[in-house]
Design goal:
23% strand
Length: 241
């Protein structure tokens, strides 16, 4: 599947020229997703004494989450890698005030380098990589010994599609469960922490107030049984040993 073309077309046709606003701020539901993700990142990583000098991000989109890390470590060097030229253009525009950011258009699996970075971040991009074991090894190789990272990805709640009598869209078939991702990261050689809940939606009800109350409790907290059912996305924190 050509995700570059899919995202380029989606940004141009569905979100017009302001992807960040349309994705995260256009209505209460979108803003709730932003607030939950921000709270989760603050609880999991940003509230700590975060220290890094070389930052690598896969799939920055418009740079929404990059800004949080730039504000934490404004003196660090940031490298953003995205396969979509349209997305990379948006991040260039949104982060134009920062002079310490490199923008690289590349397929992540072909992006060169080894042991260059001490922090890795990616939000909702890992599920689109077809060879996840190789991608995890790639992340491992990029990080210096002792380097750390945070990986946010979608929770494959495929059983809800079945309950509704719907087929899983092809674009979402690459999602990976929290237990599978834990095994993958551990086997690659990472010390793994989590999983932590990022965003939540209560299936079937479509109730903003209910989503907000559940997210207030769960965002950034360890996933238990309830969290695994209600989390739309989750994250792991990891360190290269």
């Amino acid at each position: 599947m050509d995700f570059e073309k899919i995202y380029d077309k989606q940004v141009k046709e569905k979100f017009s020229s302001d992807y960040e606003f349309s994705r995260w701020f256009k209505d209460d539901q979108a803003r709730l997703g932003y607030e939950q993700t921000k709270k989760a990142l603050e609880r999991v990583i940003l509230s700590q004494n975060l220290s890094f000098s070389d930052y690598l991000e896969l799939g920055p989109g418009p740079g929404t989450w990059t800004k949080l890390f730039l504000n934490q470590r404004p003196e660090a060097k940031f490298t953003l890698v995205d396969i979509s030229n349209v997305m990379l253009l948006l991040s260039r525009q949104n982060l134009s005030a920062y002079k310490n950011v490199d923008f690289v258009r590349a397929d992540f699996m072909n992006f060169p380098g080894k042991n260059q970075f001490d922090f890795f971040f990616s939000s909702r991009a890992f599920e689109y990589l077809p060879e996840k074991s190789l991608a995890a090894q790639k992340i491992f190789n990029f990080l210096k010994p002792g380097g750390s990272g945070v990986l946010v990805t979608k929770n494959p709640r495929y059983f809800f599609y079945k309950l509704k009598g719907r087929k899983v869209p092809q674009i979402h078939k690459g999602q990976i469960s929290a237990s599978e991702l834990n095994d993958l990261l551990s086997k690659t050689g990472f010390e793994v922490f989590g999983p932590f809940c990022v965003t939540t939606t209560v299936p079937f009800f479509k109730n903003l107030f209910l989503d907000k109350m559940v997210g207030k409790i769960l965002a950034g907290r360890k996933l238990g049984l309830v969290g695994r059912l209600l989390s739309e996305s989750y994250c792991y924190k990891f360190t290269r040993k």
